[in-house]
Amino acid sequence: MAERARRKVGVLISGRGSNMAALVEAARAADCPFEIAIVASDKPDAAGLAWASEQGIATFAQSPKGMPKAEYEARIDAALRSAGVELIALAGYMRLLSPAFVDRWGGRIVNIHPSLLPKYKGLDTHARAIAAGDAVAGCSVHLVTAELDAGTVLGQAEVTIEPGDTAEALAARVLVEEHRLYPRILAEFVRTMTDDPLARVRSLALGLPETSESNEDGQPSFTVADTPFARMTGDSALKVRSDDGWQTLSLAGDIDWTLVGDAIARGWELTAPPALLEAGGR
Ligand code: GRF
Fold first, then answer.
1. pTM for this one?
2. Which residue lies with its CA nearest to atom 9 of ligand 1?
3. Whose CA is nearest to atom 14 of ligand 1?
């Protein structure tokens, strides 16, 4: 089989980085479709940064203290881009990314969250699952949108809650599953994005706020507030709402994904209701 370039992933962490380490270990396998190009953090003393650096991986730290969020994110963005990053994996990154940042990386940011989403977004997931009397807990890998823990779920693993479980004991068992799930789903995601243009269009479109997929005459169509802004056409092409009506983009051969991503984002912008735009939807 012809060897394919591995997709460059940038990992953002805030702490110990055990999920990042699991991704680094997985990337050592010859058939892994991704490599970890850089590990970046908002915490210069994050334990995971020192570990990554010992492994010979490029690292970058930037505290957000004393600067506007936009400037902090611009520095993270610049570090990721100069490392050639194509996809971002959040792994215990404890900051909400701004809509502008998420938009710039449209559909190319994933996260791992320690609950079976859509249950228990945010913090203290295990304590909440135990308090609710749930029989199972688990973890989810999902696409990141500007809304906390709300993007499309790409994969999940379940863990049984035992009688008398504590949040700590449950967290430890879920973490073992996180380390298995994240590399597997990230590899799947990268492979689909590489081999299947529709999957990539889907992740770009569904990465935008309040979007959903429907079927129009047998073709996938992407809507915001029930109005289509992009749709596949039979002949490997994508129609996207544009300033002049609709434009058709070819999805055959070498695809300029930056152009496609920008066109999809513009189509969304032209279609989203004013309230969503004003709320800083993107
Ligand atoms: C994990 O539980 C992950 O699901 C959550 O934050 C924790 C990070 O742990 N997002 P680590 O830094 O990967 O060890």
1. 0.80
2. 92
3. 18
